Amino acid sequence: MSCFASPQQVVVMAQENGKRKKPNILVTGTPGTGKTTVCTALAEATQLCHINVGELVKEKNLHDGWDDELDCYVLNEDLVCDELEDVMEEGGNIVDYHGCDFFPERWFDCVVVLQTDNTILYDRLSKRGYKDSKLSNNIECEIFQVLLEEAKESYSEDKVIAMKSDNIEDISRNVATLTDWIRNWPLPSES
Q1: Distance of CA 148 to CAs 47, 64, 90, Å?
Q2: Is 45 exposed, middle or buried (0-12, 13-18, 19+ CB in 10 A)?
């Protein structure tokens, strides 16, 4: 059995939700798996709001400084969650971030974990200029499916799907599948 979701599995995930008019989707995965590319295309196709957490952290100073070894900001999870709370309750968001275990489970109706072949991922991260330690750390995360396991531990299993993201065809298929899922999102019942 494949660990990747079929388009039919994603559409079946459209479950009734009495709170939000539009779903919230988390797109996660190791850096270089295509999260921002998928989120940007999905937001254009669905008119949902793309929230790139990495950019938000920089813009709003939602961090505790810079980590020289990892070459990135040290995310302040509490500040990020406080910043996003109201917009997430409204719905209609696509959240783009390489981690997922600190977001409240109630925020998301679907958690997508993008996965990429290690050789392809290595090439993508090398082109970004990742240092050897950061490069090997991210490749190991992908090999051991760390983010998929993190998602399965943090969210109900019926919300978590893995999607292959090796090439433009995979990305196009993923965007089309998720767009169909969003279009099948049931409107809340009238009270």
Answers
A1: 27, 26, 26
A2: middle
Between CA 43 and CA 17 the distance in angstroms is 21
Phi, psi of 73 (to 5 degrees): -75, 150
- Please enumerate in sequence order all residues whose Cβ is within 8 A of that of 131, keeping only pairs 6 or more positions apart, or say none: 71
Residue 189: the pLDDT is: 67
Question: SS in 3 state form for the chain?
Answer: CCCECCHHHHHHCCCCCCCCCCCCEEEEECCCCCHHHHHHHHHHHHCCEEEEHHHHHHHHCCEEEEECCCCEEEECHHHHHHHHHHHHHHCCEEEECCCCCCCCHHHCCEEEEEECCHHHHHHHHHHCCCCHHHHHHHHHHHHCCHHHHHHHHHCCHHHEEEEECCCHHHHHHHHHHHHHHHHCCCCCCCC
The answer, yes or no, to whether residue 18 has pLDDT greater than 90, is no
At residue 69 the predicted structure's pLDDT band, cuts being 50, 70 and 90, is confident
Residue range 54-76: average pLDDT? 95
